Recover the amino acids of this structure.
């Protein structure tokens, strides 16, 4: 059976429910996440939330700590605000060495 898929992976997740909390947006478009929600979801100051939309709904998701390239969890390396796992960093290193031709050291200084 054909099935439409989306990026939100709603399968297996409980149906969306209202928290009953209503917040006003301030003049700069900001809202305050209720502390109870922050506590339940383990959201702390400085954490990043990814904003997505689904139909007419705005969805906030705590940004997963995943490798920028392969999606592996808990990447070890932090490079220019991107998280990269050791495997990808290593592969990237090999790639760069193959693609960048360094000046031939034997001809330098002759
Ligand atoms: Zn990776």
């Amino acid at each position: 059976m054909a099935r439409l898929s989306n990026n939100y992976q709603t399968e297996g997740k409980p149906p969306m429910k209202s928290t009953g909390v209503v917040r006003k947006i301030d003049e700069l478009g900001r809202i305050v996440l209720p502390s109870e929600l922050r506590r339940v979801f383990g959201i702390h100051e400085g954490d990043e939330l990814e904003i997505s939309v689904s139909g007419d709904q705005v969805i906030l998701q705590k940004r997963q700590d995943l490798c920028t390239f392969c999606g592996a969890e808990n990447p070890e390396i932090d490079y220019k605000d991107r998280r990269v796992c050791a495997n990808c960093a290593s592969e990237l290193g090999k790639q760069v060495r193959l693609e960048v031709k360094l000046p031939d050291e034997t001809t330098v200084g002759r």
